[in-house]
Amino acid sequence: ILDPGEVDALLAALRTMRDRAMVLAMLLGGLRRCEVLGLRLADVRVADRAVFVADGKGGHQRLVPIANTFFAALGDYLHDERPAGIDTDRVFVVLKQPRRGRPLTIEGLDGAMRELVR
Predict the structure, then answer these.
(1) How far is Cα 37 from Cα 14, in angstroms, rounded to an integer?
(2) Is pLDDT above 80 for 35?
């Protein structure tokens, strides 16, 4: 469990809007890594302030309410950072070449988080 100061420090250390949105989904919505990576654009329910987890732990589906902070960060990522015209409906994608625009993998997410502890 992180205290508010630790959360602020974690969010400040993130280098991309994508990483901020992913971490907020985990912190504010309790999503697991694989659930975050499995999100599709159609799973984001902005009007309901929730995301639909289609394949959660044990194969269960659920609608997860998440605070506006997540949706603001997600909007920034989608508008300013996510590559345009890519051929995937996954929300979170690789931002650098040579895999730019492909769905982000567990290894990619873990690598982004490892950079925080360096």
Answers:
(1) 17
(2) yes
